Amino acid sequence: AIVTFGWTFFALFGALPFVFSGAIPSYLNAFFETMSGFTTTGSTILTDIEAMPPSLLLWRSLTQWLGGMGIIVLSLAILPMLGVGGMQLFKAEVPGPTTDRLKPRIQDTAKLLWGVYVLLTCIETLLLMAGGMSFFDGLNHAFTTMATGGFSTRNASVAAYNSVYIDWIITIFMFLAGVNFSLHYLALRGKIGDFIRNEEFLFYSSLVIVGTALITMLNMGGTYPGFLDNLRYSAFQVVSIITTTGFGTADYELWPVLCQYLLVFFMFIGGCAGSTGGGMKVARILLLFKHAQVQVYRLIHPRAVRLVKLGDRPVDKDVMQSILGFFALYLGVFVAASFIMAATGMDLNSAGGSVIATLSNIGPGLGSVGPVDNFAHVPAIGKLVLAFCMLLGRLELFTVLVLVFPSFWRK
Asked: How many alpha carbons fall within 13 Å on the CB side of residue 154?
């Protein structure tokens, strides 16, 4: 309850600078923008970002960066209590933040991971400045990259810079932001082996590589004339979508339909457990695949004993049940919210696109809320529904929905 109300409180009061300055006169729109910030979603109602005062652009980016810091603590402290957190999945393979591999106390671990977060933010800022960005733009984009938020200081997002160097730097740091931050800490301690042997990281990397290769091939001879340009745009959008950052260098709705289907698939997956990314999380998807394999194997060999494992360790049945429940609930919320959005007058493509964009904390969606559009035209009731989807997705559904059960309050 504290986490849910805390996030809502920050969004309610974080909207005030936009309202009092007159930059966003409507409180509902300001609330939507700020909820999008603190949940690191990146959906925006702004039609002319570059007309905003620099101080408000900085505050806008800072909401995402602070939201990302909050998610790191949430993954450590709150979600494990519900049996759905990233740290259970991480501990199943690599001894994590609640063991002596890092620090025994959650507070100490949070400080360590925040240190990694700040360090990566500073490095990216310097590298972006080396590519020609101003300090202001570099800092803002580093804030929103490491938070996997996707707010930009430009109307055309990262595409405005038209720089191969900047595109690749942001691609690399989006990829890093989508990785479990505990692995970054272990890597900085020289334990690279833990990093590259982590099964979730390997699966995540494979998805990025295969997705980039497929979209590059499907785009050949079409949208982009040269192979290197094709690879650059494909890699950027694949990483941007799977990490749920939402930056754009291209309008992927102009790509072949199969490319768009692949990106929608990645929208549901999201980043690694313990990262700032949204979505269902790579670890959950990996374990769902493994669970399906085990069930098929048991059908063929009824007497066989085979367990779902992450790395060398079996996954607890309670954790597996929570993952199956989360998956079913995620799809249920997606379908229900999509119907509500369609009832507001949006076409089905835009309705579904707006829900997955907010529920997975991506930012841009499909149709009228695609990568070159915004959410300004969405009806008031629709904005409230989507803001709720942002909160649900960011706090991993159960943390919010548990509040509707009377038994929770009796405790």
From this structure: 16
Burial of 150 (0-12, 13-18, 19+ CB in 10 A): buried
pLDDT of residue 92 exceeding 60, the answer is: no
Q: What pLDDT does residue 74 have?
A: 65
- The amino acid at 333: V
Sequence-ordered list of residues with C-beta below 8 angstroms from that of 63, at least 6 positions apart, any chain: 10, 14, 34, 37, 38
Confidence at 33, pLDDT banded by 50, 70, 90: very high
Where along the chain do its domains lie?
A: 2-290+316-410
Tokens, residue 45: 């109602």
